[in-house]
Design brief:
The chain has a 7-stranded mixed β-sheet, with helices on both faces. It is an alpha/beta fold. Bound molecules: 2'-deoxycytidine-5'-monophosphate.
């Protein structure tokens, strides 16, 4: 069976993976999947129900039909009865709990099954995450590892939130991101790391448009794209 063309974009927190992946997918006529959205949806279930046992979380997720659904070119998370799951999965309690949920192997296996099934329904897909090129699609057609210094990522994140970037806030956000990097790279299950065949793109000195353009060029050079 011919599988969908897959572009994997991995990298640390706040490296701009999701917005970059969405823009790359648009340019190529591919679908976009944000794999973190499934870890967040499971975390939302855990927080809402106050349960931590992975088997119970998965049973509840099944009852709520937590899944990826095609919404035009984007593939978005669905939770029964929640009108705006994209907002629900980005609430503070979810931000705080998602690293612990993403460290549980049973839950990672469940997410990976959903990612592979949703990808198979597309002709081409850009998926962003931490382990897409290493664990979920080790045979992806193109793997990109996005990096930027923690300080550059912190500054972008504060600007996105509309904050005036003062040095104390910047130092605090840089420390928070460095700690997330430490958790994501040191966990036992599918830690964040660069695939040996990934193209590394350091975006510290690039604009958003430049980083999208570089990946689109790489994709086209690899014969990828419907548009
Ligand atoms: O990209 P994000 O911040 O929405 O990801 C949320 C969490 O999920 C983060 O702690 C890392 C984890 N994650 C993961 O472990 N593997 C992925 N493929 C995607 C996200």
């Amino acid at each position: 069976m011919r599988h969908a063309r897959v572009i994997a974009i991995d990298g640390p927190a706040a490296s701009g993976k999701s917005s970059t992946a969405a823009a790359v997918a648009r340019a190529l006529g591919f679908a976009h999947i944000d794999s973190g959205s499934l870890y967040r949806a499971l975390t939302w279930v855990s927080v809402r129900a106050g349960v931590h046992d992975p088997a119970v979380i998965l049973a509840l997720a099944g009852r709520l039909h937590v899944d990826l659904q095609s919404d035009g070119d984007a593939v978005r998370v669905h939770i029964d009865g929640i009108n705006d799951p994209e907002s629900a999965i980005r609430m503070l309690e979810v931000n705080a709990g998602v690293s612990a949920i993403a460290a549980l192997p049973t839950l990672r296996d469940w997410v990976n099954v959903k990612l592979r099934a949703a990808s198979a329904d597309t002709s081409g897909v850009v998926i962003d995450g931490r382990d897409i090129g290493t664990a979920v699609f080790p045979d992806a057609d193109l793997k990109v590892f996005l990096t930027a210094t923690a300080a550059a990522r912190a500054e972008r994140r504060l600007r996105q939130r509309g904050h005036v970037v003062d040095p104390i806030e910047l130092a605090a956000e840089t420390a928070r991101l460095a700690e997330r990097d430490r958790l994501d790279t040191s966990r036992a299950a599918a830690p964040l790391r660069q695939a040996s065949d990934a193209v590394v793109l350091d975006t510290t000195a690039l604009t958003f448009e430049e980083q999208v353009e570089r990946i689109v060029m790489l994709a086209r050079a690899n014969g990828l794209g419907n548009a």
